[in-house]
Specification:
single chain; 284 residues; alpha+beta; six-stranded mixed sheet; four-stranded mixed sheet
Length: 284
């Protein structure tokens, strides 16, 4: 979808419209892209766009979602300091789960660390309504592979990625027209998480142009074998739908038991040792 920058009223109406389409399609879960309620290039508008999870647009959408679970991209207030760039799961008439973006890019065209406070945890939500455990990562979180591993250690079935990823590296694609090379990396990451962690992956990436930045779209849904169940068009709004065969989780993890064989204690020990070693001065 294409949110409107700094216009929460218009974006609330857009969310209601897409929720109506998803309901007609029989969706149990609808995922919006990063900062879907506000637009991405907020800069100094960020603090004024913050909305509490128990009132305002989020509360209204939670009530209207009915039996459908909805993951929304929003700016959430912090107790002190800058707000957070967050993914909010609306389920059962309330905000049932929140992930605050941990990795805030602050280089080149990105300046999120100037306006947002980073999150400090990775958690999963065990949804009785959906019958699985899901975790959310927001854009740059996906590029740090440790994020997905941290979620998998908590028992992950579905990885939800929400992004506002700009289209970069425009190139010719074998006579089929021009395409953004940056999309290939997102597809590699999505497939790697699906195969490596043995989970379903839903990645919603926005479209449209803001402040001269063009967002690439090409959202996709993958199963635990890395097979693409649905992929959206590049640069165009679209509603993707796919049926998730939850028994496939068991079959995929049996065929490739990476999750079963993961050496969690060993990895935890190695990470602790590495952190201690990095903190030592030369010669200690």
């Amino acid at each position: 979808m294409h949110p409107r920058l700094g216009d929460p009223g218009a974006n609330l109406a857009l969310h209601r419209e897409w929720m109506g389409r998803a309901r007609e399609a029989g969706a149990d879960l609808l995922v919006f892209p990063e900062l879907s309620l506000t637009g991405y290039c907020l800069r100094d508008l960020a603090s004024s766009m913050a909305t509490p999870v128990k009132e305002g647009p989020l509360a209204a959408l939670a009530r209207e979602a009915g039996d459908m679970a909805v993951m929304v991209g929003a700016v959430l207030p912090s107790r002190a300091g800058p707000p957070s760039n967050a993914a909010v799961l609306l389920e059962g008439g309330r905000a049932a789960f929140v992930h605050r973006k941990v990795y805030l890019p602050n280089h080149g065209m990105f300046e999120e660390a100037r306006y947002f406070a980073p999150g400090d945890r990775f958690r999963v939500h065990r949804s009785k309504r959906l019958g699985l455990s899901l975790g959310a990562l927001v854009c740059r979180d996906l590029w740090h592979l440790s994020s997905g591993v941290a979620l998998s250690y908590r028992g992950l079935d579905l990885l939800v990625g929400m992004s506002a990823s700009p289209g970069r590296d425009l190139r010719e694609e074998d006579g089929s027209g021009r395409s953004f090379g940056s999309l290939r990396m997102l597809q590699v990451l999505n497939e790697g998480y699906a195969r490596g962690l043995g989970v379903f992956v839903i990645h919603a990436n926005r479209v449209g142009t803001e402040e001269g930045v063009t967002f690439a779209g090409c959202s996709e849904i993958l199963d635990p074998t890395g097979r693409v169940l649905a992929r959206g068009p590049e640069g165009e709004e679209a509603l993707l739908a796919a049926d998730l065969d939850l028994d496939l989780l068991r079959r995929a993890r049996t065929a490739l038991p990476l999750e079963r064989d993961e050496k969690r204690e060993l990895v935890s020990r190695e990470v602790r040792d590495a952190l201690r070693e990095r903190g030592r001065r030369p010669g200690d």
